[in-house]
Amino acid sequence: MQLGLSRLNSVMTETVYYKENIAYKHWNEDKLEAYIHKNVLSDNLFESIKENVKSILNTSTDTFLTHSTIFSLNGQTKKIISHKQNAREQHVIFDLTFDPEYYFQTVDTIQEWSMYRLQSSISPVFYKFIKIIENLEPFKNNLGIYLPLRQHINVLKYDSYMGYHRDAVNVHFKTIDSSKARCYSLTFYLEDNIEGCGGELYTLNGFVYKPVSNSAIIFNGHQILHGVTQNKNPNKTTRLAFTIRYAHKDDLFLPGHPDKHLWKMEHL
């Protein structure tokens, strides 16, 4: 492990770098490489984000298999902001891959386009959070290279858990072996772990991270199988945390606008 300190938004953030010594050979797993950041936000911003997340969790996730959809019902405008995915309840804050203009982008335009989309569409507290994270490892030396594509809140209610899984889907990546795409998952925690009450991140090799309030863990969730232990919070409350997925822009499948292609097929 390696330890570092950095000053962000008037707070001292402690960073721990962790890397496994051996890989889990049975599943041909890569070695876990993680960055753990503690004391990430100032008190005011932390409380604002916490209240925002709690408010979102108080809304229903019993919706269609979609999100950010606007429709009219009984003369009122409704917006679906949540969905169920793989039988897992989630609140989707944003998912740029669902934007109609996403696949019109190229590696040269995706960074400017994505940040403009986020700044104009998501809550200012979440946008500020993203800008703060830019100054932490592994992103601070790769500004404009790793892009936030998706943010969601997994609804881990009392007695619920998340089994082994990988994050993201291969269709978003152009690499020959899409399972090796550089795609980080950041999970930010808004409450402390209660010993023996679950809610911990775990991997095949036995790595366990017990949540610490105002901390974030970042690792390649697309490559590493991971899960979350059963939520046994004595207050029977839903886990307070959210995840943002970052991808390396060079690995993304971005064909660009069809009107700008060099070759066109007028007729089949």
Structural commentary:
The protein has one domain: q2cbj1_9rhob like domain (Jelly Rolls, Sandwich). Residues 63-68 have low confidence and may be disordered. The longest helix is centred in the N-terminal third of the chain and has 15 residues, at 43-57. The protein is built from three helices and 15 strands. It has helices spanning 43-57, 110-121, 124-133; strands spanning 2-8, 11-19, 33-38, 69-73, 76-80, 82-85, 88-95, 146-154, 162-165, 183-189, 201-203, 208-209, 215-219, 226-228, 241-248. The termini are far apart. The protein has 268 residues and is an alpha+beta fold. Helices cover 14% and strands 32% of the residues. β1 (2-8) and β2 form a beta hairpin. Strands 1-2-3-13-10-15-8-7-6 form a nine-stranded antiparallel β-sheet. Strands 9-14-11-12 form a four-stranded antiparallel β-sheet, with no helix packed on it. A two-stranded antiparallel ribbon has the order 4-5.
Concise description?
The chain is of the alpha+beta class. It has three helices and 15 strands.
